[in-house]
Protein 1
Amino acid sequence: MSKMHALTGNEAAAYAMKQIDPDVVPAYPITPQTELMQTFAQYVADGAVQTEMILVESEHSAMSAGVGASAAGARVMIATSANGLALMWEIVYITASSRLPIVMAVVNRALSGPINIHCDHSDSMGCRDAGWIQIYSENCQEVYDNMVQALRISEHKDVLLPVMSTHDGFIISHTVERVDALKDEEVKKFVGEYKSLYPLLDVSKPVTYGPLDLQDYYFEHKKQQAEAMKIAKRVILEVGEEYGKLSGRSYGLFDEYQTEDAEYIIIALGSTAGTAKAAVDDMRAMGKKVGVIKLRVFRPFPAPELVQALSNAKAVAVLDRSEGFSGIGGPLFQEVRSALYRKADMPVSGYVYGLGGRDITPEMIAGVFGDLKEGRIHEDEAFHLGVRE
Amino acid sequence: MSNIIEIRWHGRGGQGAKTVAEFLALVALNEGKYSQGFPEYGPERSGAPIKGYTRISEGRIKMHSAIYHPDIVLVLDSSLLDSVNVCDGLKEGGIVIINTTIPIPELVKKYAFLNGKKVWTLDANQIAKDEIGKAIPNMPILGALVKASEVVKMDSVINDIREEFTKKFPPKILEGNIKAVKRAYEEVSGG
């Protein structure tokens, strides 16, 4: 069925985009995303896709061009990283509130300053409240799989929300791994032909995008967005299951690894979840009951499902790859602890790690499990793992 | 993790360490294995010391950290030996392959960190100059690796050079690369 490729995370995302063949792709380069659009631009130049690529002068313009094209009725895909996402900011919110189903690959990179091109999640976590669905990929295979699924989730008539499909800068974006890709026609059939429900260019059914919306209706529109985000959870599961039937790789809201009898569980996003799984393999070989939950979907946040999955653990550690500056803990820690509040009574320990690309190793993960076992719980203030004091 | 072979490449910007680290991952993958190939990104300057990494395994590789305890170390530029402990974290009895003309006993005497390691050497610059016309040592070093470790098969390397580089290189350079790999396989010595 599938064909095996050796691809970097960026190439995997670009390959999925090639198979999808979106109508419009606005692009502006930024490390470590650049290689993704460079690869896709080659497909455009080779005539492998019919996409109209719009080369703009900034990320603000890239997102704006995406909004215009999507409102007009086109299927739009886009990509960025870090400061590029920050420059898009205003339009990121407008995309979601205009209910435009745009899929954006976010190649996670630390926000300046100081200037740093390496991975952390401060960019995508910064827009966790923007109204976009957020999906995090662990490896190059998932980058490919999630890009294909993201469109279906985004364009679902009950959802109509943009999706950020993220992967870790350099750690995944620039690592060559095995990727099993579907055939072109399988992807085309899976994503289907896009038909916008409210195209601006259909003059027989006039619609308005981006009007003034004051005390009279703004609140109702925000409530609708919140409702759509709730529905997205169901759609993500449906699409993940359907994709599983097609590819042999099904997807849920999160991935449970060796958690069934686990006394201690680590929750992480992205490539670190893979490193944590490797650590769990080693510790299981020594008879230790430890497990990992890789959160795939951060928005919408799967609170009741996580509570269920964690219910038998003695203690939980949450690894955040962004600071948040709350003084308490990172964004993932706060969501997990809120989810557990009055639902389960177990210590939740917060760690901030890996900022600006600082490496995280299986030994460091083993150290976190050791903390949990020995009762060193960081619940009032996150522990900064791997920082030099 | 014992079933994963971890390989670390030491070179200088421009010697092709990134290319060969990723190319080896591709060769392993085409042999039906799982693999990862990635460079360590810093400020990218020609001549600056850089590292590349390759992991090869029969099963899917979950880990995504850098490589700190390699099974094999490859040194594309022997001048690095003066400034970098290339054997840092190398497993006891691990393999080190160095691009140099200095005899092995002399090397081990000069660089204490090579003690207890399986040291192999070859003049990859000369091989590359003769066969490819340019002293880019990455492909000869790959030939030496196949001899010293058999992590992948020579036939797979040659097939994949043809497969991958036919579009990128003119036929003469392509065949030069293949000759360089084969010659390095014959000329590397040590162990």
Protein 2
Amino acid sequence: MKGMTLGRYAPFNTVIHRMDPRSKLLMLVLMMVAVFYGYQSQVMTFVMGGIIFILILTILLISRISLKQLFSSLKALWIMIIILLIINVLVPPIGASKIALSIGTYNIFWESILQSAKIILRLVMMISLTLILTATTKPLDLTYALEWYMYPLKLIKFPTHEIAMTISIALRFIPTLLDETMRIMNAQASRGVDFEHGKVKEKIKAILSLIVPLFMSAFQRSEELANAMEARGYNPRAKRTRYRNLHWGISDTLSLIFVITITTGVIVTSVMNWNFIEMIFNIPTWVVIL
Amino acid sequence: MPIKYTDVSFTYNDKTPFSYEALRGVNLEILDGSFTAIVGKTGCGKSTLIQQLNGLLIPSEGEVAVNQYVVSKNRKRRTKKIKELRKLVGIVFQFPEYQLFEETVEKDVAFGPKNFGLSNEEALKNAHDALRLVGLDDTFFKRSPFDLSGGERRRVAIAGILALKPSILVLDEPTAGLDPRGAREMMKLFKGLHDNGTTVILVTHDMNIVLEYSDTVIVMEDGEVREITTPLQLFNQENDLYSLETPLLYKFVKLLSDQGLKLNLNEIKDIESLGAAIAKARGNKK
């Protein structure tokens, strides 16, 4: 269950925590664009990627997310990284020519390795960005922000409020269900269930002894919640006011401008094919072609 | 010495922003064949304390020994036979009725014994014995646990632990949410098991139960053990130190003896024994 705390909201009071969830959400999208933009030369990809990565790490430190937390959320990626390496090695990119290693008649190309490294770098950045958002924003605030962005959809009778309500209820019940899972696991472990070891048949039985009670209690909870909401006169179509309002502050405007500048810079660099590394250092052409 | 806690501390979510210290330096011993009640406010660490007894939680510091089995962080000292420990110590959690999952009552109760390596027939036999013990007759065996009432489901869940024939039975508020009669029957059942040699550890908020059934009380507060005493000594304290509700029966007996009636407080556990004691004090012999 330890892994379940990953990306969980950590109640600190940093600049990032205090920012408006709407600006944070928008900035996440913009930063993702910047992360995934491609360049024509490999060197540029890594230099630009490196710059953005350093920026992300700085934000990570400002929002008081420990690097340990980041590494533990990357743990799950190991399998993906290995699979990526294998695929890239087996299926070299078109035009690969620089041999890094020869095993018998089989060649491993530098291009393959670089390609995998590029994807891994991007994945790491993507996960860090999401981690920043979820660790510094309360899930409920995030839902409010989503609802705010969906506002225009109301014009075409899209049920934005219902969707936001569904999301916030789902988010609200994640910890509750996790607690419930722990409780049932403990109870079944006391009856001799071993959730970690055992044959496949025993494992299926073990999982079943967890899932059935969990579903039963989830259904019961949902019914109780629906009753409680109706008893208090909940009507999804009613006009609602809110206890917590979102506040757009000066720090939101400033950081949004900053992020827009970066993303624009990335797009311009990429579209104009502007290779500043080559200009500054005058690197021999064969490296650039890489 | 069947159960011994040595300097046990426990922290949830250690080394994260969510860390919470639930137990602090707990030292205690629970004797074989005792009926021990653990009392204290909600959130004082009672449930954390009992979960260390069968290795569901491992102490962050210190160790818990149950007979020859040791639960500890220390890899060298801690027992490898956690399953044997779980067979020895049966824990009934709060609201255990939510752990049922099988198609029939008897299958659900037999699930535990089968996990501990009993054959199907033996497990079913144990299950039937346990079900009769909790007061559910043969007509219930083939029914679905989800068709039963809340109280009946609670009985099935408790039978699921009793079918393991544990020599230490740990109960976390087994009577919560039961009607008074059901609660009384449940407690009688546990008393019967205790009389047959089972060590019973009971977490409860009901001081009437503490007075009537237990011989030892462990009082907990803020993750620490404040007192290990007998029910009489606990309720005899003038000021209500731990904001525990003194049982009505005990208040009454105390008033009677303050008024000059010579009563032996040790003998009075319930209404019947109170009646007998009053009759004895007044010299009326049937």
Protein 3
Amino acid sequence: MPQTLFDKIWAAHHVADTAAGAALIAIDRVFLHERTGAAALRSLAERGRRVHDPARVFAVMDHIVDTRPGRGDSTLMPGGEAFITETRAATRAAGITLFDVNDRDQGIVHVISPELGIVLPGVTLVAPDSHTCTQGAFGALAWGIGSSEAEHAMATGTLRLKRPQTMRVTFTGRLAPGVTAKDMALALIAAHDAGGGAGHAVEFAGSAVRELDMEARMTLCNMATEFSAMTALIAPDVQTFAWLAGRRYAPAAFDDPYWATLRSDEGAVFDRELAIDAATIAPMVSWGTSPEQSVAIDAAVPQGPARAHDYIGLAPGQRIAGTPIDAAFIGSCTNGRLSDLRRAAALLKGRRIAPSVRKALVVPGSAAVRRAAEAEGLDRIFTDAGFEWRLSGCSLCFYAGGEGFAPGSRTVSTTNRNFEGRQGPGIRTHIASPETVAASAIAGAIADPRALAAEAAA
Amino acid sequence: MTPVTTITSPGVPLIRDNIDTDTIIPSREMRSTGRTGLAAGLFAPWRYTDADRRIGDATFVLNHRDAIGTRLLLGGRNFGCGSSREHAVWALREYGIECIIAASFAPIFEGNCIRNGLLPVTLPLDVVRSLAWAMVTIDLPAQEVRASGRTHRFAIDAEAKAMLAGGLDAIDLTLTQADAIAAWTAADRAARPWVYPEPASS
């Protein structure tokens, strides 16, 4: 019987059934960060349990590390240093590979895991971080879990799982210029709700997905958790294997016939199928307090829950473009990679952000991204435009009580969540692509990047 | 873990869609690597007019006098979406919540509930609404929610039910299958050697 890619990976990792009919699924990789991983390691140690195979567990400091140059363990989050020092001690005690605060391989977990070839096609990878689905872009089954499940995975090498249903989301056709993977993700969630993927492992397919480069595929898969899917994955292809080959933990070559089997068979049946014509997608921006509350940048704010309108301060019928902003943020596991920075820099080159934009940050997704961007001179473009150029980390994707935006700020951000208070109490967040953030920072208001791109090309 | 059997409590309605774990426990309220000391930060953005000084917002439902000591929270669609932070469930449990009845749950949050003895029950939104402020009995063995003379059956995955009803420790249970895991791993090591890096030198 034809199988989906998910079916194949699931079957290949099925160790046994549990007494109540769940599956015991082998876990190939566990990745921890200091924010939730320290809790898992501490609890594991307190209960006297050992890590099953420390060589397949990795940890990184990304969530609350300071991103200002010259950083050490101290962080602006009150009490934050303890998360860093405890994670360091616990990983050392457990024999787990740690990418420390100032390590040259440090970065956001979902940026560095691919960079180092830790995620591979066909593997199962879990992390106590909801955006682990990002790594499904490589054809891995990668998903976010809680700390208790991380403990379970480390202690047993498995997880007890109920088999999810499968969904295929096919993006047909071709994206218009200036429209990105971020816009695809927001268009999907806006059309099918933030809970629309619940209970499903989603495979992204279709011509518009094939045409995405690896970094854009990561952006698309990253937002699967905002769709409440268990995870998303994209079948590996020539591009995937070329991208990974030779990285530190990856094979030098992917010539084993096994690799070619990692795709959904012709005629494989999914429990649910959705199709979206990529050509109809415009640059998207969120208007409310859930990613499902997103609209095309040239559209008006629709009628939504009163609470969302009140929080964000935009009335139904109002045009979203032209809304004044106070801050801009480029970075995160969604859009903090080199290609994201390149595309933002292309629009910012030779321009200045509006004086009304009081805080503008670029936070590279990893130390490697930062080095590569500097080698191309992107840092100068950003700083000349008025952005701060930071060290890598999760930074202001969320507010941890340390650094924040000015009270009452309206931000436009390349991050993944526009929840109430996500970037700080009362902060109003609009999520969008790097292009849209760059164009908006220049305009001092939410702006369509396509006009600026046309100008830049002229 | 304490086994979950029957819970009786007033249903405190917080029936909004997409209640996220950042709101249930903001990052700034997660002040240690432990699992405790979180109840005071539960729903901090909504529960307090001034979270730093812990000045309560009288309009928030958990501050209602009939909500004091509740064990049951009612939610809307996609409850617990967003961050995987298990602190959201730890905070709810520490506060005293033992069951959430919602129209649907986000998957990581639901899994975290099950690992911490917090019963997630999914019922249609109109049924959830009908439970607001009623005295509700949730009967896990019978898979029933009873209130105001009406009985609503709910579905729950057999594994989740067994874990909650038995108060079982998942790791202990899985380690009873350690032989099967070892055999699988040995075979896999031969089949997919690239999955098994050499241990880091220390």
Protein 4
Amino acid sequence: MRKYIVLILFVIVSCQPEELMIVEPLPQYEMIFEETESSVTDGQEFSFEIISEEEHQLVISKDGSVIAKESFLPTLDINTKKIYTKSLPTDLLKLELINSNGVIKSTFIQIN
Amino acid sequence: MKRLLLLILLLPIFMFGQSGEGYINYKSYKTHSGTGSSSTYNGVTYSGGANSTAEFDAMVDTNQPGTTLTHSGEVSPFGGTGLNGGHPPKWGGSYFAIVYSGWFKPNKSGTYNIRTKADDSSETRYREVGTTEWQTMTYHWGCCSYRYGTATLDKTKWYEFEFRYQEYGGGDYYYFAYSLPENSSSPIYNQVSSNHPFGTWTNVEPTTEETHELSLTYELHTDLDATKFSTLIYYECTDNAGGLCPTTSTLGNNGTVSFDETAISTDQVSTGTYSAETVDGGIQYIYVYNWDSTNERHRVGLDKRMFNTFGYSGFASGAPTSLFQSVTHLKFYDVIDEDVEYKSNGTYWAEYWLNTRITSDMVQASSSTNRFQNGSWSGYGGVAVQSIDFVLGNSFAEHTLNLSVDGTYYNDEYDNVITVQDLVIAFNQLTSGGSGPGNSGGTVFSTGIEYVLGDVNEDGSFNFVDTQLMLQHIYGDTDPFADKTFGDVVKIFDSGYDDWSTTNWNSGIPNTTLDSYTPNSSTFEQSKTYQVAFMGDVNFSHSHEPSNLTTAAQSMSVRYSSAKGSSNDVEMNMIKDGEYLKVSIEIPINNHNITASQFKIYFDSSKLEYESSDISSESIPSFTTQRSKYINIGSISQDGSQNLNGGITYTLNFKMNSALNSTLGLLGLKFYELVNSDGNIINLKIK
């Protein structure tokens, strides 16, 4: 008889629903300057870390000549911006992050 | 039972072998009677190691009493039984000779370096199929060291080979290695193997039927991506009944493309013309006048009754002149087999000119008629033939070639074909003296092609009308070339590009990107080379540069200047100001005598709307022009009297359609050009 009771207990316990833990997803950043080269599409977001609040520039160039720029006042830590590609040449271009000290980060972006 | 099954499975292999690609033949001989003794037959003796081709021939001649064929068959060229060891079945370890034979087709064309090593004497030779003389790659009358040679081969051809070596005593082997033509200056030898096959090997004689092939080369400007271009080849493929057979191929990186017979079918089509060919007999239907030495021609008449085979009666009554005109060739016995030219037709005779003299000592048969005349039919002005066959002429269908390009690529590139440098060069040509503006007025152009390309309205005269159109194209309110297609603005030249006349430049200019080609029945492999040029592109920024170009201001347009940094760099800023995005371009004070500048600011029209421009200086005429994808802003002094040495700032104002946190890439400076009064580009960087 005890065997049956144990079996029933097993069934009851095993059929109880598990408590699900809801895990907050961590934000995903495309840290573009951590890659040596990235392929980008129109309107794509990218992120980078800033450690000073002074004005910075994002500069796109080819062979040392500037094609596009954006000046902005960043926030400390992770900043996220968008890149638009319709007015850029289909080419491998250099993307640089610049502040008053000069180029602080650099990578290549392939515009398709 | 298993053995029986295995035997049944293997039987076909034993019965039928594996001949064909991947196999070569071998013959294995016992030589020197298997003992090392010499042998003589018909006065020819061999002994020891072969010391000449003749002695080697004798060694493998089974008429020789000392030579016996012991084995023959086929092996892979790649293994130890083949050319990578030299050990097919053989009678013993000494006194033997191995002869490999078959055919190969190399993987590449060019001069291969060949290396062999054999023990003992060896000969490695080949000959092109259809030829009789062996070409020697290497030979060695002795033993054991590497021997080097070359072989110039064509990858489209088959070659017969005979590689042989003989063993007298001691070690024995044969190794074949090659180095590819591209490594000829510093050979890298690969032992022949399945990984390094050298080419296709076979022991079945290859068929060598020739096929038509057309190889095209389009010489484009080196900065253009040739793979964006295609060429279409098409022809009327159903014997004049309509219907086109088209084939399109993309150009390779080097601008070349080949069409084989599947694309350039050799189907014959009617030319619509006839050859009149005599049939022997006793009725006169032809006369031939004596040679007219003044006009260098014979006058030939065909009796019009012969044209009744086309459904007419009498003297071809009612037949249209076009019927008589359609006879373009005359085959008169064995004395005339030439093209003729229609002259006229009267009541009885259709007449033609024959421009080839039949014979220099032709006897005038009748002084009264001054023409050939059959003696037995005196009184009649003709030569007796039974009849005339009218043989409809055939030819290979004419093919049309048409160069085309990817539309997006063309739009992007054509935007920058005609720029301020072209304009300055063109103006300079027209204002630089000579006999005045027009065909040969200036002293700037050095080639005829520059005149051709400068004549943008294609009226046969290069003048200020053309520069006005170019000027409008750059900064007019409306672009006169806006509707031009690739076929309108591109020309392909098949000859004369590098020495085009500067005085008679407007004759023989190709019309379009089209050309025609008719397969030639005797020359199976044909090739054509075209130079590709854009109208208006007098600085050859997008056109193939003629080799005779000496024009000083020929430097290419620089989309992205790579000049070393200098204090004169152009400063560009893109600033977000409320709902506006502004771009400013500042040319600083300088001493470059810049008389023309042009900047193309491309903008994302889905997010920005162009509003206005500001130009800081009025010391030189400036322009701002809105095009669909970009704003064109700059300055130009048409006579070169003003310049930008004092500096200038161009500002463009765009309104954002919505609030945007990011603006990177909404504006892009994809092209700029700074030109001095000589038409030379000033290489300043944008920073």
